[in-house]
């Protein structure tokens, strides 16, 4: 009837083509196509109430939504989203599940025909023991579990990396069950040195508290338990709830793999299914298989080969679950008839502040940790900083030069998939958005490294680098303590370390400055820096943190091919960053702000600066000499380990599969079999154009002969001028 009406009396502003008006089937096809477009761009569908005038109309709407979801399910087949026990679902399994779900839907619809009213029918659809509407609850493939288990309670384990409701794969998968019990199990003992500690505890506790508040809006709650053994707590809560399955998102750390294996064993003993999902990274770091050697524009385990391999072997990252689907899922989700005993989040032994100093307050003021805060933060960055990120990302003195989303990604209050497609779907040109987008690939790469080298948090990936001689004894302690407290006498370094101590954060470019300073100039073992960062960062991530420190310490996969000057301070070109965190220097002219030891006496006096009293003298004064000692220590170690040296002077490492591969090695560390630093030829006869022919090294980051010839032309032109 509606089609007939539109043929002769179309609504103002509405155009319907001939295919739509030809038949109900034609109209249906077009509507479903439009719904898929809405889904693709994460846009919500609003249903106009006057258009749904009866129960039959609503059935049509639900049918259209199911048809859309069937399409989405087929597009997700083969993605490594979920594992049931030890078996990943393949296409045949998902196809069987879809048929089962369709038959259930059909049976449920037949049962619903006996309902007495529209209201009772809608209520039965949302709370029925059947899972017939489960495709409405999630656009992810349902697990291959029988209805008997789906009619039992599902426990969803939240951890320190997935504290959110939206685009939480484990929660979405569990929504197919009759009852869902969100659970957080806390064991301080299980955290160890690389678990949740220090500042990370502060933001985790805030995130859990906000998660519980959000759940209560949907008549759900977060069940919290605390003890020494999380697997024992899990067994107990499964028995109390009569759980048929436990869902969790894999954390991908060395400790979590052991813990999750214990969970699987315990659950198998009590005949409860374990379903492991992937929701904290774009890719499962155990999935890509990288070839040894130099491929895809880089050495093994560097960014571009990893990115290209993931896209080739695993496809593009999955799109996030639409927010509308999350809302409907939560509206339909039902908790147990009787909730198990629980501790309040505030009662957990997390971030317990002793004494009168509320050191957590500045951290929470800067990083309130909820899903709403994460979205607000993301939107503010996209409004004020995203378009300028490529230009400003290294600046510490400019607001929103970086996104400040790292803590939300670490805690999981923001989905990496949502952020990824927020970037990719933007109107910004590829060259203006690629670096920010690749930050998310860097996260995955760090976990790929940790998966490949589980010991990397405190042991060199290039194992022979464990023999590097670092400073030791009282001098090492004095330098390290000056560094960690922001009292080195180098204003940019001190500003970064003071910001870190007070707020738990600093921008990536400053992290690199302070890391380089500790390793290159103070000659302190990188492991001490990694441990301090892990304790003081709100975004403390043992994989990402150790990847940076390994590379700064030269022992990582992607050894830094640069030195970060503690004096040049281009990260703080205006000086405002240093003035904020080293206020005792705020009256100094910008020319000497980052090197006050060069200021004339009268300038220091006018600014009220007394070196050694109001601001510390430099912990080291001869940067060049200190760095020479640092370089020599690496060369000495490499000369003693020629078996780990390639014929071109590069380091060799052993991969998890036993194969050997070359990894990038900085030019100043490349040695020949006799232990001599390999020198590149620099001059030869001039060409007819007057440009010297130069033997160009093939080190990473070089553009080759053409780029060097252009540089020489510019220099020659400048000389003529």
TrEMBL record:
Signal sequence, renumbered to the chain: none
Domain called Photolyase/cryptochrome alpha/beta: residue spans: 153-282
Cofactor annotation: FAD
EC number: 4.1.99.-
Annotated FAD binding sites: 389, 402-406, 436, 539-541
Keyword tags: FAD, Flavoprotein, Lyase
Basic and acidic residues composition bias: residue spans: 93-107
Spans annotated as Disordered: 93-143, 677-721
GO molecular function ontology, one term from the record: FAD binding
Superkingdom of this protein's organism: Eukaryota
Record has Lyase as a keyword: yes
Residue spans of biased composition, Low complexity class: 684-694
Cofactor note: Binds 1 FAD per subunit.
Skewed-composition ranges (Basic residues): 695-712
Keyword Lyase: yes
A Pfam family per the record: DNA_photolyase
Assigned GO CC terms: cytoplasm; nucleus
Family from the record: Belongs to the DNA photolyase class-1 family.
Protein name: DNA photo-lyase
Organism field: Skeletonema marinoi
